[in-house]
Amino acid sequence: MSREKVIFAFFIVLALTLNFGFFIGQIDNPDHHNEYEFFAALVVSLIATVMKFGDRTHIGAVLLATSLVADLQLVAGAVVWGLAEHVFAGGMSPAVMASIVSLSGGALLANLTSVILLMVETVLIRR
Amino acid sequence: MNYFFLFTLFRRLRAPLISLIVVYSVSVLGFVLIPGVDDQGNPWRMDFFHAFYFVSFMGSTIGFGEIPYPFTDGQRMWTLVTIYATVITWLYGIGKMLALFQEPAFNRLMHRMRFRNGVERVEEPFYLVCGYGMTGSLVVGRLAKRGIRAVVVDIDRTRIDALQTDDLRYSPQGLCADAAKPDVLNDAGLQRSNCIGVLALTNRDEVNLAIAITSKLLAPGRPVVCRSESDVTTANLASFGTDHIIDPFVTYADYLALALASPYHHLVYDWLTNPTHRTLASAYQKTQGRWVICGYGRLGRALHRSLRHSAVNLTIIDDNPKPEGLEVEFVQGLGTEAVTLEEARIHDAVGLVAGTANDANNLSIVMTALELNPKLLTVVRQNLDSNAAVFAAAKPDLIMEPGRIIANNILSLIKSPLLSEFLEAMRSKDEVWAHTLVNRMSAVAGQRELDSWAFSVGEEETPALAEALNQGRCVKLNLFMKDPRSSRDQLPCFPLMLKRNGELKLLPGELTELQLGDQLLFCGLARARDRMNWTLVNSNVFSQVVGDPDARGGWLARRFRSWGF
What we know:
Chain A contains four helices and no strands. Chain A is mostly helical.
């Protein structure tokens, strides 16, 4: 067991679980989607991306790509959130919430791919 | 390999990046959680947007003040903590990055990447030159003069620095690395389609061997020219099909043997291969008789072998005891003292070769010998390029520089394969023929450098000429010797050889009619080559030289003329 592998897997799985926690619930109901959870999901996703830097294998490259996709989706969600709350007059509305949650849904898929790849890699390792 | 660089960068920066993310997110979270008041005194909490905004400008120590409302003491306390945390993290991150850029290993990696990208951007045909010592720099410089690029690999940093500062017509690509490694050769463009040849010119035989075998395996069709300084290496190189193997000692021994046996053949050879050729007068020297060779090392042995069948007697001086089975006169000693030279009967010798591996000894031998016998023909071996001034001042008849010999040989190979065929075929001709040829060369070039070039008649190299031949026109050889700028003048050049269907015709007559597929070798001044190229390629210039007014101008102009304007 290597410590590095534990931390690596921890962050990748945590990115998925936090993302899932934010995503679950009625899509346009702001009460079902906690902003702290969204923040945590974004931060953990960024950390997971940096953890994936520097792996030269093919699977490492695909892992990095999925993480970048998740980051992109979550940052887009955060920007939409900020714009709705502070820039546009309308404030938070069910429509805006729905678009944020659907963006995080995309990130969820990317994170899921990431975890699946991680599992595949683990299974392929011969003991 | 290209991404390897980025991967290393990111891998090293992983810790600073993660700490930056963590510190930022904790700071932002703190500001979101700590209660504050707005300008009316109502309880107010910062949201993520404002918290991120505040942390961003605070972390970079710009500091716009307490935004959007003045902070409570709790918020100020947290600000204090975060100021130190973010500043330290930034310093840590930037320090890490700077340290990375200072690291020699990382620098090498970066140089390597830049080199590889540079080689990939080279679109013109280029030679891959391994070793930028005296030979390498001569070859690269002269290739540049002919407009051919080179990519250089050398293990010595200072030589690569010299390459960057040498005055070439383009900015050359150079890498400081071990050329014996296949990945270095690959990065230097060995497998690229525009690499036209590999020149292995390092001063170590085993490295040259490694380069030759690597290029023969990775790029089998690529011509390889390799320097070799021992018979074992030469045989080894030949065994796997190295295209040209140049042993400077054997080459020079043959060159000297030619000078002794047939001075005019030697002069023709010298004028065609050596840019600073010997004067015509040097052929009148007396060369037949007894020669004294100082040093029975690689050069001495090669000379002994080359001169064995000629009418020249040899006396060998060497520091070591007489080798077994050597049937010529032998004197033990260095040769730097008069006693040894007198023992070798220097008074009645015609020539002396100072061929030891030590430059100072060689000069001393020549000076001592000339004092004893001023009429002596002297040949001296110069090992180091930096000693050139001293050797020139000693005024020997011939200076043998291994580096220059290899460079001249390679250049004559690069000029045209026809040139070496010509030099080979020339041996069957007699001295009178060679004398006439040298006189003719002298009339064209004088003291300037005699260049040589070749072309084959066909669509690819000579489109204008091929077009005329396809139209059934009769084109004579002398056409190309006319100056396209003024048709009354002749270009300073003449044809050396015509190769037609594998048959060689030396010094073809100027009225010879050309056919498609003919290969021609010319010699003359470099500017004549450029002018001749003009006639060969540009059909307008061609018609001008032929004196055909109907064919002048572009398609439109011809159309207008045919309409009678």
